[in-house]
């Protein structure tokens, strides 16, 4: 057959396929209505497995493609049925109560908790997000969460990931355990400098202090110094600068910001110490009361999935079926569960979209662990 003739045959097959698809979806809607009246769940794993077994057996060497087609169909069918079968739920009520009216602007003031001391990158991020905010400093990330949870501070600003050194795992672990929501995120360009006492040269340095994330972002430079320089992890880059300023050791240095040089009477050596000049850290804003401001287009979730083949694929297929772009997927081992993992998802979407809310409600019912962290914008 000529190519043009083959394409005509494909067009005819597509017409038949579209008609069959529309008919199938209409039948699925009827099934959803029946399930709603009978109080039955949307998911029927046994029925899906029965169909897949039949399709695979009839598809020959195209069985893997048929399997992919039908698993996608199942996700579309569930998405179609979900709004018909679900009623009110705590998650739906939480989301509905969090929606801000159109036109409401993100606040530029309030009491803001951040970890570290003056000159910390968290402070810079907080000043950029809340230009009229009142900052309170805390020693640990957990203290920031506690300040927000207790109502001492309305907002908290925390680093959550770096473009060259990955996630801040302690923050992810805390946000899963604490009763807070994400309402905003911001990317801040990070420029690390090597700070020393006035007049000290690079060859005189015997120890370098900084936060573990900053140390990781400057790992190549630190490796080049060899074993003669001791590397010491500190709770915060600004605290490291303050410690060096107070230290009696002339050879003590800190990896910190250029702002901290002026704050603590230190000098910044001209050495290029970062692994990458394109070095960004994402900071999140947390609050006790969930709020979804107009324009929010990112959703963060933490899920524990069934320990079975395909459970992660099922989630990814749902996102794909709704054309939701996945921005982040990261796993963390679950303590006390051998080789089982908890997953952090971040994707583009809005809870003002009913399809998204239905998907979240379905995930809440089906996943062994479900945590909706918030719907927010990033700038």
Q: How do the helices and strands line up, and which of them pair or pack?
A:
Elements: H1 3-38, H2 45-58, H3 63-85, H4 90-98, E1 111-115, H5 121-129, E2 134-138, H6 141-150, E3 155-162, E4 166-167, H7 169-177, E5 181-189, E6 193-196, E7 207-210, H8 212-217, H9 219-224, E8 230-233, H10 237-246, E9 252-256, H11 258-264, E10 267-269, E11 280-287, E12 298-304, H12 311-321, E13 326-333, E14 341-348, H13 354-366, E15 369-378
Parallel strand pairs: 1-2, 1-3, 5-15, 7-8, 7-9
Antiparallel strand pairs: 3-4, 3-11, 5-11, 6-9, 6-10, 12-14, 12-15, 13-14
Helix pairs in contact: 1-3, 2-3, 3-12
Describe the structure.
The protein has 379 residues and is an alpha/beta fold. It has four domains: 3-85, Chorismate mutase (Chorismate Mutase Domain, subunit A, Up-down Bundle); 89-105 and 294-379, ACT domain (Alpha-Beta Plaits), CATH 3.30.70; 106-190 and 277-292, 3-Layer(aba) Sandwich (D-Maltodextrin-Binding Protein, domain 2), CATH 3.40.190; 194-269, Periplasmic binding protein-like II (D-Maltodextrin-Binding Protein, domain 2). The chain is built from 13 helices and 15 strands. The protein has helices at 3-38, 45-58, 63-85, 90-98, 121-129, 141-150, 169-177, 212-217, 219-224, 237-246, 258-264, 311-321, 354-366, and strands spanning 111-115, 134-138, 155-162, 166-167, 181-189, 193-196, 207-210, 230-233, 252-256, 267-269, 280-287, 298-304, 326-333, 341-348, 369-378. The strands form two sheets. Strands 1, 2, 3, 4, 5, 11, 12, 13, 14 and 15 form a ten-stranded mixed beta sheet that branches. The chain has a five-stranded mixed beta sheet with strand order 8-7-9-6-10. β13 and β14 (341-348) form a beta hairpin. It starts with a helix and ends with a strand. The mean pLDDT is 92.
